[in-house]
Design goal:
The chain is mostly helical and 362 residues long. It has 15 helices and 2 strands. It has one domain. It has helices spanning 2-6, 22-51, 64-69, 78-92, 98-123, 132-153, 178-196, 204-221, 224-230, 241-259, 268-285, 289-295, 297-316, 326-332, 337-357, and strands at residues 161-163, 171-173. It has a two-stranded antiparallel sheet. A hairpin with a 7-residue loop joins strand 1 and strand 2 (171-173).
């Protein structure tokens, strides 16, 4: 909004030229989202506690220590994250940019799905929320809508192609088969973050790391000079997504203040589904779908651990891990929660650096 209001006045007031700079507005989005989180966090948490007397229902089949240690902690804290992201993005982004609105659609749409899921769990005092098939169907519908919209905005040469990292000119033409691929990326990223969100602070930091990585990728992809230098595919207007990513980083930092062990609030599906879906959609816009699997490799590993566990038990009756997702396996082995969380953060940083290395290794 500030960009649209103030940049037209820059010819008369040269100081307003600063709002033309994407880096300045991205920094503004970080600070704004952080400030909104700090100011609104205590109010939101008090309101959630007043509405959720028993807090988030703890799964009976989860680690036993969670039943005692985490009982009574309110969920749906993702509402605070979405509030901060929305305000910061709307304030600092170019609101004539269609990519910004498409990413907001995915993020808030998945957030509403998660909100409904969390609400049913809390109101029914059960770990079961929306029926799985209904939940997945709504997620796919949102992803299809966003993908078709994004494809129409992308350059024709890129709209239905898959870019391959490490190769400067390789594009795999998929035609309309690109739609199901994008759905897998968006819905898969959403649910992968959701599976990772099982310990205090475990999911939000890797999400911020991924968001910071894609802020850089968006900026480079949307800049013709840098894109040409790095020999990556130029997507005009994609740079504006750096503002959204900055808002996500700021909102994540603010939420972490309240989610640090012992957590005062959980993000719930309201936050995890939304953040994962948003990251997946950004990967589709920037043509870095495969790089997302590297940068978000921690989420991939957590998801694969669940798939392997379920498949092994159904086929052989044996479990590969003591408990899935993977972070629960290490809990069962006796690792302290902070140890698991910090080591997973370190892995997330390493994977993000590996993913960013693909920008130059071509």
């Amino acid at each position: 909004m500030l960009f649209n209001l103030l940049v037209p006045l820059a010819d008369e007031f040269s100081v307003l030229n600063i709002f033309r700079y994407l880096t300045f507005r991205t920094g503004g989005a970080v600070l704004t989202a952080l400030l909104v989180s700090f100011l609104c966090g205590p109010v939101v948490i008090r309101w959630l506690r007043s509405r959720q007397k028993a807090g988030q229902p703890i799964r009976d089949d989860g680690p036993e220590q969670h039943i005692v240690a985490k009982a009574g902690t309110p969920t749906m804290g993702g509402f605070l994250i979405l509030l901060a992201i929305s305000i910061a993005t709307l304030l600092w982004a170019d609101l004539t940019n269609g990519y910004v609105w498409s990413i907001l659609l995915v993020t808030l749409g998945f957030g509403l799905v998660g909100f409904a899921d969390d609400y049913l769990k809390v109101s029914h005092h059960s770990s079961r929320g929306l029926p799985g098939k209904l939940k997945l169907a709504i997620e796919i519908l949102i992803a299809v809508t966003a993908t078709v919209w994004i494809m129409r905005m992308l350059p024709e040469a890129l709209s239905d192609n898959l870019a391959v990292p490490f190769f400067k000119d390789v594009l795999v033409g998929l035609g309309w088969f690109f739609v199901p691929l994008a759905i897998v990326v968006i819905v898969g990223a959403s649910n992968a973050v959701n599976l990772t969100d099982g310990l205090d602070g475990l999911a939000i930091v890797p999400v911020m790391i991924a968001a910071a990585s894609f802020a850089l990728i968006s900026y480079l992809v949307g800049n013709a000079v840098f894109a040409n230098y790095l020999q990556i595919h130029f997507v005009s207007g994609a740079g504006e997504l750096a503002v959204f990513c900055g808002a996500l980083v700021g909102a994540g930092l603010g939420f972490l203040w309240f989610n640090a062990p012992p957590a005062m609030v959980f993000m719930g599906d309201t936050g995890s589904l939304a953040l994962g879906g948003g990251l997946g959609a950004i990967a589709v816009v920037t043509k870095h779908e495969l790089v997302l699997a590297i940068i978000g490799g921690l989420f991939v590993v957590e998801t694969v651990s669940v798939i392997v566990q379920v498949a092994s038990f159904k086929l052989t009756g044996r479990r590969v891990f003591r408990m899935a997702p993977l972070h629960h396996h290490y809990e069962q082995k006796g690792w302290a929660e902070p140890t698991i969380v910090i080591r997973f953060w370190i892995i997330a940083v390493i994977l993000a650096l590996a993913g960013l290395a693909t920008l130059k290794l071509r």
